[in-house]
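WARN retry 2 of 3 for item q-0093 after timeout on previous attempt; input resubmitted unchanged.
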Amino acid sequence: MMAKGKNSEQLHSNNKHKNGYNFNDLSEVYPDLKEFVFVNQYGTDTIDFANPKAVKAINTALLFKYYNLTFWDFPDDNLCPPIPGRVDYIHYLADLLNASGIDENVKVLDIGIGANCIYPLLGNAEYNWQFIGTDIDKKSLDRAQIILKKNNLTEFIQLKQQTDSTQIFKSIISETDKFSATMCNPPFYRSQEDAMQANARKLEGLGNRDHVQTRNFSGKQQELWYKGGEKAFIHTYLYESSMFKTNCFWYSTLVSKKENAESMYSSLKKLGATDIKTIPMHQGNKVTRIVAWTFLNKDEQKEWITKP
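OK item q-0093 returned
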């Protein structure tokens, strides 16, 4: 039976999950999901989205069913990303690249790849993109490398550690590097306390108080909070991007707060951005956005396309 997922409404037109989940099909490719599926009061198959193990199981099943993976595992204290929302970022970025004339030999730099390696896995499966993924946590990179090896993806996705937690692109991008785009899902809490309070509110909204001490999608410090929160991280991100103006066509990041997106515009214009775009993403009741910018002028953009 098809059932609406928590993020199935208003997804990108190319999103495989826009019509909800078929729990029977998903349980066939990933039998561990079966124990979490039940029929709700409306007679529809579903899972408890406040249960982190159930959330991890359904997202694993989605990857097995739709994205050619045969292995996806990582410690329970690492972030478990919701696949429908994450692949939406991939599809909208693909639209932006296509509109710019970039549809072949796409190479993306993923900032904060995490142990789950999710954006490179989805981007390679959907569009055959190549990736370099960075993270400050060596253990997360080691776990991501296991996922890549077991799925025979090391030829398409490489990993690189950022050894300085105060930097983002420095020591990662070299003078000769060229990326079609960067992408990032920044930590948006200021502290662990902020993260836990937000989680409690979310779980109460899901109607389940039993898991208030556990995030239903887990997450370690570097994945969830950053000194100064989302705004501080993003402004470091965009400032450093201005140091590598010709190394990347489109820089991009998710931005959860509208006011943070608005504050980026004046900063980016001062830094010399030639074009800035905000791409809204609607997933059920949740509204977020991608902000993308380039420092290339029209002639540089044409040269990039003709001589990638």
